[in-house]
């Protein structure tokens, strides 16, 4: 159940250098899941690069610090091709603070996600608190009941 007093949910959208946008339960104008969903729908697409490491650090600093419970998880939905040449922030920025599910989705050109980037994001090389790394071909697969049940089982 996603209600302000019971669950904490937030979304960080990102692209290139310093373009992160955050909407979350608990924001001044977001007091229920319906309003949060509308706020997410209202986010505009941001053209540019993929600075995933920077976005994960932003998430750590600006979203996860709000959620002090030890019962939390980050689900990172990405094309899995971070621009690690221009963004020096490590992809494993969240590994010390929360379990991470990296969810790599192929792009409109059918390019697959980079599995090494997904594994770094999900902390798979860490003996403590390894996450989960998943690849899908397109966003429509995120609505599949079996997929949703598997993610829910891992998160809950």
Your description of this structure?
With 156 residues, the protein is α/β, with parallel strands linked by helices. The N and C termini lie close together (11 Å). The protein contains 4 helices and 5 strands; from the N terminus they run ββααββαβα. Strands 3-4-5 form a 3-stranded parallel β-sheet, with helices on one face. It has a two-stranded antiparallel ribbon with strand order 1-2. This is CO6A1 protein. InterPro entries: Collagen-VI/PIF, VWF_A, vWFA_dom_sf.
Topology summary:
Blueprint: E1 10-13, E2 21-24, H1 33-41, H2 52-62, E3 74-78, E4 100-105, H3 115-121, E5 132-136, H4 145-155
Parallel strand pairs: 3-4, 4-5
Antiparallel strand pairs: 1-2
Tally of helical segments = 4
What is the strand tally? 5
Low-confidence stretches: none
Order of helices and strands: EEHHEEHEH
Taking the sheet with the most strands, its summary is: 3 strands, parallel
Question: In angstroms, what is the radius of gyration?
Answer: 15 Å
Q: Please report the distance between the alpha carbons of the first and last residues.
A: 11 Å
Overall mean pLDDT stands at 88
Strand line-up across the major sheet: 3-4-5
Tell me, briefly, the overall form: globular
The overall number of domains is 1
Structural class by secondary-structure content = alpha/beta
CATH superfamily: von Willebrand factor, type A domain
**Oligomerization category of the chains in this entry:** single chain
CATH architecture: 3-Layer(aba) Sandwich
CATH topology: Rossmann fold
As a percent range, the share of helical residues equals: 10-25%
CATH class: Alpha Beta
Strand content: 15-25%
Pfam families: VWA
InterPro entries: Collagen-VI/PIF, VWF_A, vWFA_dom_sf
Protein name: CO6A1 protein
Organism: Buphagus erythrorhynchus
